[in-house]
Write a structure and sequence with these properties.
Elements (H helix, E strand, L loop, with lengths): L1 H41 L2 H8 L18 H11 L7 E5 L7 E6 L12 E5 L6 E6 L4 H11 L3 H26 L5 H4 L8 H31 L1 H8 L19 H11 L4 E7 L7 E6 L11 E5 L6 E5 L5 H15 L4 H34 L4
Antiparallel strand pairs: 1-2, 1-5, 2-3, 3-4, 5-6, 6-7, 7-8
């Protein structure tokens, strides 16, 4: 009698979790699947894009350009000779390998267009030629990125992605509560091959969820933080990147290599990641670097601002000096894209990203079959 009372007392919570899980799955499950599938495609998007555009795959036997290379100034001169608006901003990516040099070009803001679309530009390995120019969002992998991050709807889409991610966390947790075994774990994790189709669907759904649930929670939670800066600020309070003002002094801009020499002197153990060159020489160069302890190689969190006219350090943002919130924030992106685990971690991120689609399909089929059985109990 006592056992029956305890079981009955637990049943309403489990039933409520099942109802929540069911209706959240039916309403937001497809969006969850789309965001996760596009995320899986983006884990290796640089390599996929290069394979789709062989014109950027150039042989280069010389060492990859780094701190002292003249390639950066040569690429900037090539861009300006190609009649890009000199008032626009350039961001050169330091890949650490030979071959084409990817860069982002941000046209100057005009009164008519507040946020003009940026262009992706690939330079030859020596910076003397432009190999490819494409508008961001206008080719497959960048389109998938915009779909994944913003649902092709800009800032509003990012808000939808972020807050729907919060609902996805509830979806995952309600499924865990509804499933949590009350008896044998062995039975709870069994796959019954000879069971009726609806039970096999239930087993597949359950096993996929159990196998991927923990990492899905991490991927969704980090995705929410990436999509919602306000949530990140509230949860982590990371140190903000400074925004230095313009230098009122006059004179021509110094070469990029002079600025990089200053950065290297200020942070000698750093690795070069991005070089941002504003069109206005009164504004400083912004050099993005990876310092020891920062887990993300491609998009590290430290910045050095260097005056274009004097090569003096204007401001420095080092993740090592930002406190606990900044340190935790540095791990959000590498956890989200799997890069924290190297190649194995990225492959695992791809596989985990496939799970929501499998869960949505099996969950939908289960629901349809159950409705059919309720409508036709004689079957």
């Amino acid at each position: 009698m006592g056992t029956q009372t305890v079981t009955a007392g637990r049943q309403p919570w489990r039933s409520a979790a099942r109802r929540i899980h069911l209706w959240l799955g039916l309403t937001i499950g497809l969006l969850f699947a789309v965001i996760s599938l596009t995320g899986s495609a983006l884990v290796f998007y640089v390599g996929i894009d290069a394979a789709l555009h062989p014109e950027t795959q150039v042989e280069h036997r010389a060492p990859a350009p780094g701190w002292t290379s003249p390639v950066w100034d040569r690429a900037l001169a090539t861009a300006r000779a190609a009649r890009f608006d000199p008032a626009g901003k350039w961001s050169f990516e330091v890949t650490g390998s030979g071959g084409a040099i990817p860069a982002r070009y941000y046209p100057p803001v005009s009164g008519a267009v507040r946020h003009p679309p940026r262009l992706m530009v690939w330079f030859s390995a020596d910076g003397s030629r432009i190999l490819r120019v494409a508008p961001w969002g206008g080719y497959l992998m960048s389109w998938l990125y915009e779909l994944h991050m913003h649902l092709l709807a800009g800032d509003v889409g990012a808000q939808v992605v972020g807050w729907s991610g919060v609902i996805m966390l509830v979806l995952l947790l309600s499924g865990l509560i509804a499933w949590w075994p009350r008896g044998s774990w062995r039975k709870a994790l069994a796959f019954r091959r000879n069971a009726p189709p609806i039970r096999r669907l239930n087993d597949i759904h359950r096993l996929v969820a159990v196998g991927s649930g923990g990492l899905l929670l991490i991927l969704v939670a980090t995705g929410v933080i990436l999509a919602l800066p306000a949530v990140k600020a509230a949860l982590l309070s990371p140190a903000t990147v400074p925004e230095p003002s313009a230098n009122a002094d006059s004179g021509p801009a110094l070469p990029i290599t002079r600025a990089l020499a200053s950065v290297r002197s200020a942070v000698p153990d750093a690795r070069l990641a991005f070089i941002d060159v504003p069109g206005d020489p009164a504004m400083p160069y912004r050099v993005r670097i990876q310092v020891p302890g920062d887990p993300h190689r491609r998009f590290p969190g430290s910045y050095v601002f260097v005056d274009q006219r004097s090569a003096g350090i204007v401001a420095l943002h080092n993740v090592r000096d930002g406190g606990l919130g900044t340190a935790i924030n540095a791990w959000v992106r590498p956890l989200h894209d799997g890069s924290v685990g190297g190649l194995v971690g990225r492959i695992l991120a791809v596989l985990i990203g496939l799970a929501p689609a499998a869960l949505f399909v099996t969950g939908l089929l289960r629901w349809q079959r159950r409705r059919g059985r309720l409508a036709n109990p004689a079957q």
